[in-house]
Amino acid sequence: xxxxxxxxxxxxxxxxxxxxxxxxxxxxxxxxxxxxxxxxxxxxxxxxxxxxxxxxxxxxxxxxxxxxxxxxxxxxxxxxxxxxxxxxxxxxxxxxxxxxxxxxxxxxxxxxxxxxxxxxxxxxxxxxxxxxxxxxxxxxxxxxxxxxxxxxxxxxxxxxxxxxxxxxxxxxxxxxxxxxxxxxxxxxxxxxxxxxxxxxxxxxxxxxxxxxxxxxxxxxxxxxxxxxxxxxxxxxxxxxxxxxxxxxxxxxxxxxxxxxxxxxxxxxxxxxxxxxxxxxxxxxxxxxxxxxxxxxxxxxxxxxxxxxxxxxxxxxxxxxxxxxxxxxxxxxxxxxxxxxxxxxxxxxxxxxxxxxxxxxxxxxxxxxxxxxxxxxxxxxxxxxxxxxxxxxxxxxxxxxxxxxxxxxxxxxxxxxxxxxxxxxxxxxxxx
Length: 431
Known about the structure:
This protein is an alpha/beta fold. The chain is 47% helix and 14% strand.
Protein backbone atom coordinates (compact mmCIF):
# COMPACT_ATOMS: atom_id res chain seq x y z
CA UNK A 1 0.00 0.00 0.00
CA UNK A 2 2.95 2.35 0.55
CA UNK A 3 3.51 2.78 -3.18
CA UNK A 4 -0.15 3.85 -3.53
CA UNK A 5 0.19 6.54 -0.89
CA UNK A 6 3.49 7.70 -2.42
CA UNK A 7 1.74 8.03 -5.78
CA UNK A 8 -1.19 9.95 -4.28
CA UNK A 9 1.14 12.29 -2.38
CA UNK A 10 3.23 12.98 -5.49
CA UNK A 11 0.07 13.68 -7.51
CA UNK A 12 -1.04 16.11 -4.83
CA UNK A 13 2.37 17.82 -4.87
CA UNK A 14 2.21 18.25 -8.64
CA UNK A 15 -1.28 19.73 -8.49
CA UNK A 16 -0.43 22.00 -5.56
CA UNK A 17 3.04 23.02 -6.80
CA UNK A 18 1.97 26.44 -8.23
CA UNK A 19 0.35 27.37 -4.93
CA UNK A 20 3.35 26.07 -2.94
CA UNK A 21 5.76 28.02 -5.18
CA UNK A 22 3.70 31.17 -4.67
CA UNK A 23 3.84 30.73 -0.88
CA UNK A 24 7.61 30.28 -1.05
CA UNK A 25 7.94 33.47 -3.11
CA UNK A 26 5.79 35.31 -0.55
CA UNK A 27 7.96 33.97 2.25
CA UNK A 28 5.09 32.08 3.89
CA UNK A 29 6.52 28.58 3.44
CA UNK A 30 10.23 28.82 2.88
CA UNK A 31 11.95 26.77 5.54
CA UNK A 32 12.05 23.05 6.01
CA UNK A 33 10.55 21.73 2.78
CA UNK A 34 13.75 19.95 1.68
CA UNK A 35 14.11 18.35 5.11
CA UNK A 36 10.47 17.28 4.96
CA UNK A 37 10.65 15.88 1.44
CA UNK A 38 13.83 13.84 1.94
CA UNK A 39 13.67 13.19 5.68
CA UNK A 40 16.86 15.09 6.47
CA UNK A 41 16.75 14.89 10.24
CA UNK A 42 20.06 15.32 12.11
CA UNK A 43 21.66 11.98 12.82
CA UNK A 44 21.78 10.69 16.39
CA UNK A 45 25.29 9.92 17.62
CA UNK A 46 24.65 8.81 21.21
CA UNK A 47 23.63 5.28 22.07
CA UNK A 48 20.85 4.48 24.48
CA UNK A 49 17.04 4.62 24.56
CA UNK A 50 15.43 7.27 22.38
CA UNK A 51 11.88 8.47 21.67
CA UNK A 52 10.83 10.45 18.62
CA UNK A 53 7.98 12.78 19.65
CA UNK A 54 5.91 14.56 17.00
CA UNK A 55 3.94 17.76 17.60
CA UNK A 56 2.18 19.40 14.67
CA UNK A 57 2.36 23.04 15.74
CA UNK A 58 2.49 25.39 18.72
CA UNK A 59 -0.34 23.83 20.72
CA UNK A 60 1.07 20.33 20.51
CA UNK A 61 4.61 21.57 21.18
CA UNK A 62 3.42 23.04 24.48
CA UNK A 63 1.49 19.85 25.19
CA UNK A 64 4.70 17.79 25.15
CA UNK A 65 6.35 19.70 28.01
CA UNK A 66 4.78 17.88 31.01
CA UNK A 67 5.14 14.51 29.27
CA UNK A 68 8.82 15.11 28.56
CA UNK A 69 9.35 16.17 32.16
CA UNK A 70 7.70 12.98 33.43
CA UNK A 71 9.60 10.75 30.97
CA UNK A 72 12.95 12.20 32.05
CA UNK A 73 11.95 12.06 35.71
CA UNK A 74 11.25 8.33 35.40
CA UNK A 75 14.17 7.59 33.03
CA UNK A 76 16.89 10.29 33.13
CA UNK A 77 19.09 8.67 30.44
CA UNK A 78 16.30 8.84 27.85
CA UNK A 79 17.08 10.75 24.65
CA UNK A 80 14.28 12.69 23.00
CA UNK A 81 13.97 13.95 19.43
CA UNK A 82 11.12 16.33 18.61
CA UNK A 83 9.60 17.00 15.20
CA UNK A 84 7.08 19.62 14.14
CA UNK A 85 5.22 20.36 10.92
CA UNK A 86 5.02 24.16 10.99
CA UNK A 87 7.61 26.92 11.15
CA UNK A 88 6.06 28.47 14.26
CA UNK A 89 6.03 25.06 15.92
CA UNK A 90 9.67 24.50 14.96
CA UNK A 91 10.73 27.89 16.34
CA UNK A 92 8.92 27.31 19.63
CA UNK A 93 10.25 23.75 19.99
CA UNK A 94 13.82 24.96 19.31
CA UNK A 95 13.34 27.53 22.06
CA UNK A 96 11.59 25.31 24.63
CA UNK A 97 13.60 22.14 24.05
CA UNK A 98 17.06 23.47 23.28
CA UNK A 99 18.64 20.47 25.03
CA UNK A 100 16.90 18.05 22.67
CA UNK A 101 17.08 17.40 18.96
CA UNK A 102 14.43 19.35 17.02
CA UNK A 103 13.67 18.87 13.32
CA UNK A 104 10.94 19.25 10.71
CA UNK A 105 8.71 16.19 10.47
CA UNK A 106 9.07 14.45 7.09
CA UNK A 107 6.27 14.35 4.58
CA UNK A 108 4.59 10.95 4.55
CA UNK A 109 6.70 9.57 1.70
CA UNK A 110 8.10 6.16 2.55
CA UNK A 111 11.67 7.17 1.61
CA UNK A 112 11.54 10.23 3.88
CA UNK A 113 10.20 8.18 6.80
CA UNK A 114 12.90 5.51 6.32
CA UNK A 115 15.59 8.16 6.25
CA UNK A 116 14.44 9.72 9.52
CA UNK A 117 14.19 6.33 11.23
CA UNK A 118 17.70 5.50 10.05
CA UNK A 119 19.04 8.78 11.43
CA UNK A 120 17.09 8.98 14.70
CA UNK A 121 17.01 5.24 15.52
CA UNK A 122 14.06 5.64 17.91
CA UNK A 123 12.79 2.97 20.30
CA UNK A 124 9.29 4.44 19.94
CA UNK A 125 7.41 7.17 18.11
CA UNK A 126 4.93 9.35 20.01
CA UNK A 127 2.23 11.26 18.14
CA UNK A 128 0.48 14.04 20.04
CA UNK A 129 -3.34 13.96 19.95
CA UNK A 130 -4.11 12.86 16.38
CA UNK A 131 -1.54 13.10 13.61
CA UNK A 132 -1.81 9.76 11.83
CA UNK A 133 -0.03 9.09 8.55
CA UNK A 134 -0.21 5.65 6.89
CA UNK A 135 3.38 5.44 5.61
CA UNK A 136 4.85 6.64 8.89
CA UNK A 137 2.91 4.03 10.83
CA UNK A 138 3.44 1.32 8.20
CA UNK A 139 7.22 1.77 7.91
CA UNK A 140 7.64 2.00 11.68
CA UNK A 141 5.54 -1.13 12.17
CA UNK A 142 7.63 -3.06 9.64
CA UNK A 143 10.76 -2.06 11.54
CA UNK A 144 9.12 -3.01 14.85
CA UNK A 145 9.22 0.55 16.18
CA UNK A 146 6.05 1.04 18.24
CA UNK A 147 3.87 4.04 17.38
CA UNK A 148 2.07 5.56 20.35
CA UNK A 149 -0.72 8.14 20.39
CA UNK A 150 -0.84 10.30 23.51
CA UNK A 151 -3.60 12.66 24.59
CA UNK A 152 -5.58 11.04 21.80
CA UNK A 153 -8.78 12.53 20.51
CA UNK A 154 -10.98 12.01 17.46
CA UNK A 155 -13.74 14.46 16.69
CA UNK A 156 -17.09 13.30 15.35
CA UNK A 157 -16.24 14.63 11.90
CA UNK A 158 -12.85 12.90 11.83
CA UNK A 159 -14.44 9.69 13.05
CA UNK A 160 -16.95 9.76 10.20
CA UNK A 161 -14.21 10.61 7.70
CA UNK A 162 -11.98 7.71 8.73
CA UNK A 163 -14.94 5.31 8.63
CA UNK A 164 -15.81 6.48 5.12
CA UNK A 165 -12.38 5.31 3.94
CA UNK A 166 -12.13 2.37 6.29
CA UNK A 167 -10.47 0.11 3.70
CA UNK A 168 -7.49 2.46 3.56
CA UNK A 169 -7.41 3.62 7.17
CA UNK A 170 -8.16 0.44 9.16
CA UNK A 171 -4.64 -1.08 8.68
CA UNK A 172 -3.15 2.15 10.02
CA UNK A 173 -5.22 2.03 13.21
CA UNK A 174 -4.56 -1.69 13.65
CA UNK A 175 -0.79 -1.09 13.65
CA UNK A 176 -0.84 1.44 16.51
CA UNK A 177 0.94 -0.02 19.53
CA UNK A 178 -0.60 2.10 22.29
CA UNK A 179 -3.37 4.70 22.31
CA UNK A 180 -3.84 6.88 25.41
CA UNK A 181 -6.97 9.00 25.06
CA UNK A 182 -8.37 12.01 26.85
CA UNK A 183 -11.83 10.48 27.40
CA UNK A 184 -13.65 7.17 27.08
CA UNK A 185 -15.62 8.58 24.14
CA UNK A 186 -12.40 9.08 22.20
CA UNK A 187 -11.21 5.62 23.24
CA UNK A 188 -14.38 4.04 21.84
CA UNK A 189 -13.88 5.87 18.54
CA UNK A 190 -10.31 4.59 18.18
CA UNK A 191 -11.52 1.04 18.80
CA UNK A 192 -14.36 1.46 16.33
CA UNK A 193 -11.83 2.47 13.67
CA UNK A 194 -9.78 -0.70 14.09
CA UNK A 195 -7.50 -0.27 17.10
CA UNK A 196 -6.94 -3.28 19.33
CA UNK A 197 -9.08 -2.65 22.43
CA UNK A 198 -6.29 -4.08 24.61
CA UNK A 199 -4.00 -1.29 23.43
CA UNK A 200 -6.42 1.56 24.13
CA UNK A 201 -6.84 3.21 27.51
CA UNK A 202 -8.02 6.53 28.93
CA UNK A 203 -5.33 8.57 30.68
CA UNK A 204 -7.03 11.97 30.81
CA UNK A 205 -5.93 15.20 29.15
CA UNK A 206 -2.28 16.17 29.38
CA UNK A 207 -3.33 19.77 28.76
CA UNK A 208 -4.19 20.04 32.45
CA UNK A 209 -0.64 19.10 33.46
CA UNK A 210 2.25 21.49 33.50
CA UNK A 211 0.09 24.62 33.73
CA UNK A 212 1.16 27.31 36.16
CA UNK A 213 -1.27 28.31 38.91
CA UNK A 214 0.82 30.95 40.69
CA UNK A 215 0.45 34.40 39.06
CA UNK A 216 3.48 35.63 41.01
CA UNK A 217 5.86 33.43 39.02
CA UNK A 218 9.09 35.16 37.86
CA UNK A 219 8.25 35.14 34.13
CA UNK A 220 4.86 36.77 34.61
CA UNK A 221 6.26 39.38 37.00
CA UNK A 222 9.06 40.22 34.55
CA UNK A 223 6.65 40.69 31.64
CA UNK A 224 4.28 42.80 33.73
CA UNK A 225 7.17 45.03 34.81
CA UNK A 226 8.37 45.46 31.24
CA UNK A 227 4.82 46.35 30.17
CA UNK A 228 4.70 48.98 32.90
CA UNK A 229 1.68 47.47 34.66
CA UNK A 230 1.01 48.41 38.27
CA UNK A 231 -1.03 46.65 40.93
CA UNK A 232 -3.88 49.07 40.29
CA UNK A 233 -4.10 48.26 36.58
CA UNK A 234 -6.88 46.00 35.34
CA UNK A 235 -5.33 43.92 32.55
CA UNK A 236 -7.49 42.32 29.87
CA UNK A 237 -5.60 39.65 27.88
CA UNK A 238 -6.98 38.39 24.58
CA UNK A 239 -4.80 35.48 23.47
CA UNK A 240 -4.49 33.08 20.53
CA UNK A 241 -6.64 35.50 18.58
CA UNK A 242 -7.48 35.72 14.88
CA UNK A 243 -7.46 39.09 13.11
CA UNK A 244 -11.19 39.75 13.47
CA UNK A 245 -11.00 38.97 17.21
CA UNK A 246 -8.10 41.38 17.72
CA UNK A 247 -10.24 44.12 16.21
CA UNK A 248 -13.21 43.22 18.41
CA UNK A 249 -11.09 43.20 21.58
CA UNK A 250 -9.50 46.53 20.67
CA UNK A 251 -12.89 48.11 19.97
CA UNK A 252 -14.29 46.86 23.28
CA UNK A 253 -11.24 48.26 25.05
CA UNK A 254 -11.68 51.64 23.37
CA UNK A 255 -15.32 51.84 24.44
CA UNK A 256 -14.64 50.99 28.10
CA UNK A 257 -11.32 52.72 28.83
CA UNK A 258 -12.82 56.25 29.15
CA UNK A 259 -14.97 54.93 32.01
CA UNK A 260 -12.17 52.77 33.46
CA UNK A 261 -8.84 54.56 32.89
CA UNK A 262 -6.87 51.82 34.65
CA UNK A 263 -8.00 49.27 32.03
CA UNK A 264 -5.11 47.82 29.98
CA UNK A 265 -5.22 45.55 26.93
CA UNK A 266 -2.75 42.86 25.88
CA UNK A 267 -3.33 41.21 22.50
CA UNK A 268 -1.47 37.96 21.78
CA UNK A 269 -2.28 36.92 18.18
CA UNK A 270 -2.17 33.26 17.28
CA UNK A 271 0.27 34.02 14.44
CA UNK A 272 2.79 36.76 15.28
CA UNK A 273 3.76 37.18 11.60
CA UNK A 274 0.50 39.01 10.92
CA UNK A 275 1.16 41.67 13.58
CA UNK A 276 2.24 44.28 10.98
CA UNK A 277 -1.11 43.79 9.24
CA UNK A 278 -2.89 44.06 12.60
CA UNK A 279 -1.03 47.26 13.44
CA UNK A 280 -2.08 48.84 10.14
CA UNK A 281 -5.69 47.78 10.60
CA UNK A 282 -5.88 49.20 14.12
CA UNK A 283 -4.23 52.43 13.00
CA UNK A 284 -6.96 52.85 10.39
CA UNK A 285 -9.40 52.65 13.30
CA UNK A 286 -7.36 55.35 15.11
CA UNK A 287 -5.98 52.82 17.62
CA UNK A 288 -2.25 53.10 18.24
CA UNK A 289 -0.44 50.09 19.77
CA UNK A 290 2.91 49.11 21.25
CA UNK A 291 4.71 45.98 20.06
CA UNK A 292 6.28 43.53 22.48
CA UNK A 293 9.56 43.50 20.54
CA UNK A 294 9.87 47.26 21.00
CA UNK A 295 9.84 47.07 24.81
CA UNK A 296 13.28 47.76 26.27
CA UNK A 297 12.51 49.04 29.75
CA UNK A 298 9.32 49.50 31.74
CA UNK A 299 7.05 51.49 29.45
CA UNK A 300 4.76 54.34 30.43
CA UNK A 301 1.88 53.93 28.01
CA UNK A 302 -1.85 53.26 28.02
CA UNK A 303 -1.84 51.97 24.45
CA UNK A 304 -2.77 48.31 23.81
CA UNK A 305 0.25 46.00 23.86
CA UNK A 306 0.52 43.51 20.99
CA UNK A 307 2.74 40.51 21.73
CA UNK A 308 4.45 39.71 18.42
CA UNK A 309 6.57 36.81 19.68
CA UNK A 310 5.73 33.18 20.36
CA UNK A 311 5.98 31.26 23.61
CA UNK A 312 4.90 33.98 26.08
CA UNK A 313 1.13 33.67 26.19
CA UNK A 314 1.15 31.29 29.16
CA UNK A 315 2.95 33.92 31.23
CA UNK A 316 0.74 36.82 30.12
CA UNK A 317 -2.35 34.93 31.31
CA UNK A 318 -0.87 35.13 34.81
CA UNK A 319 -1.16 38.93 34.85
CA UNK A 320 -4.70 38.97 33.44
CA UNK A 321 -7.65 40.21 35.45
CA UNK A 322 -9.92 39.03 32.64
CA UNK A 323 -9.26 36.79 29.66
CA UNK A 324 -10.60 36.03 26.21
CA UNK A 325 -9.37 32.86 24.47
CA UNK A 326 -9.26 33.36 20.71
CA UNK A 327 -10.10 31.39 17.62
CA UNK A 328 -13.47 30.67 19.17
CA UNK A 329 -15.33 33.65 17.71
CA UNK A 330 -13.47 33.71 14.42
CA UNK A 331 -13.19 31.50 11.38
CA UNK A 332 -11.26 28.74 13.19
CA UNK A 333 -11.77 26.68 16.31
CA UNK A 334 -10.89 28.04 19.74
CA UNK A 335 -7.62 27.50 21.52
CA UNK A 336 -6.58 26.38 25.01
CA UNK A 337 -8.65 27.92 27.81
CA UNK A 338 -7.00 25.78 30.50
CA UNK A 339 -4.04 28.12 31.08
CA UNK A 340 -6.01 31.22 32.14
CA UNK A 341 -8.38 28.99 34.12
CA UNK A 342 -5.41 27.55 36.02
CA UNK A 343 -4.50 31.07 37.15
CA UNK A 344 -8.11 31.54 38.42
CA UNK A 345 -8.61 34.28 35.83
CA UNK A 346 -12.25 34.98 34.84
CA UNK A 347 -12.21 33.53 31.33
CA UNK A 348 -14.38 33.95 28.25
CA UNK A 349 -14.35 32.35 24.81
CA UNK A 350 -16.58 32.17 21.75
CA UNK A 351 -18.89 29.34 20.64
CA UNK A 352 -16.38 27.52 18.41
CA UNK A 353 -14.56 25.26 20.87
CA UNK A 354 -15.01 21.72 19.59
CA UNK A 355 -11.31 20.87 20.08
CA UNK A 356 -11.78 21.52 23.80
CA UNK A 357 -15.35 20.31 24.13
CA UNK A 358 -14.76 18.23 27.25
CA UNK A 359 -12.87 21.03 29.00
CA UNK A 360 -15.57 23.54 28.06
CA UNK A 361 -18.32 21.23 29.32
CA UNK A 362 -16.60 20.91 32.69
CA UNK A 363 -16.04 24.65 33.03
CA UNK A 364 -19.58 25.58 32.04
CA UNK A 365 -21.09 22.91 34.29
CA UNK A 366 -19.35 24.59 37.25
CA UNK A 367 -20.19 28.12 36.04
CA UNK A 368 -16.45 28.64 35.74
CA UNK A 369 -16.31 30.38 32.34
CA UNK A 370 -18.44 32.50 30.02
CA UNK A 371 -19.30 31.99 26.34
CA UNK A 372 -19.45 35.22 24.32
CA UNK A 373 -20.95 35.15 20.85
CA UNK A 374 -20.16 38.66 19.64
CA UNK A 375 -18.55 41.98 20.48
CA UNK A 376 -21.48 43.14 22.65
CA UNK A 377 -21.31 40.01 24.79
CA UNK A 378 -17.55 40.34 25.15
CA UNK A 379 -18.05 43.93 26.29
CA UNK A 380 -20.69 42.79 28.81
CA UNK A 381 -18.29 40.13 30.16
CA UNK A 382 -15.46 42.62 30.56
CA UNK A 383 -17.79 45.18 32.16
CA UNK A 384 -18.94 42.54 34.66
CA UNK A 385 -15.30 41.80 35.51
CA UNK A 386 -14.66 45.49 36.10
CA UNK A 387 -17.77 46.19 38.17
CA UNK A 388 -18.35 42.87 40.02
CA UNK A 389 -14.84 41.74 41.03
CA UNK A 390 -15.93 39.40 43.83
CA UNK A 391 -18.43 37.56 41.63
CA UNK A 392 -15.89 37.15 38.86
CA UNK A 393 -13.18 36.09 41.32
CA UNK A 394 -15.46 33.29 42.51
CA UNK A 395 -15.87 32.18 38.90
CA UNK A 396 -12.11 32.15 38.43
CA UNK A 397 -11.62 30.13 41.62
CA UNK A 398 -14.09 27.53 40.35
CA UNK A 399 -12.16 27.32 37.08
CA UNK A 400 -8.90 26.71 38.94
CA UNK A 401 -10.58 23.93 40.92
CA UNK A 402 -11.66 22.22 37.68
CA UNK A 403 -8.05 22.31 36.45
CA UNK A 404 -6.63 20.92 39.69
CA UNK A 405 -9.11 18.04 39.64
CA UNK A 406 -7.83 16.91 36.23
CA UNK A 407 -4.07 16.94 36.85
CA UNK A 408 -2.16 13.65 36.50
CA UNK A 409 -2.40 12.52 32.88
CA UNK A 410 1.26 13.22 32.08
CA UNK A 411 2.51 10.87 34.79
CA UNK A 412 0.16 8.10 33.63
CA UNK A 413 1.26 8.65 30.04
CA UNK A 414 4.98 8.47 30.83
CA UNK A 415 4.56 5.31 32.90
CA UNK A 416 2.71 3.47 30.14
CA UNK A 417 5.07 4.64 27.39
CA UNK A 418 8.19 3.56 29.27
CA UNK A 419 6.52 0.31 30.26
CA UNK A 420 5.89 -0.51 26.60
CA UNK A 421 9.49 0.29 25.64
CA UNK A 422 10.83 -1.83 28.52
CA UNK A 423 8.96 -4.86 27.19
CA UNK A 424 10.93 -4.74 23.94
CA UNK A 425 14.47 -5.82 23.17
CA UNK A 426 16.95 -2.96 23.73
CA UNK A 427 18.28 -3.29 20.21
CA UNK A 428 14.90 -3.28 18.44
CA UNK A 429 14.35 -0.25 16.21
CA UNK A 430 17.89 1.14 16.60
CA UNK A 431 19.64 -0.75 13.83
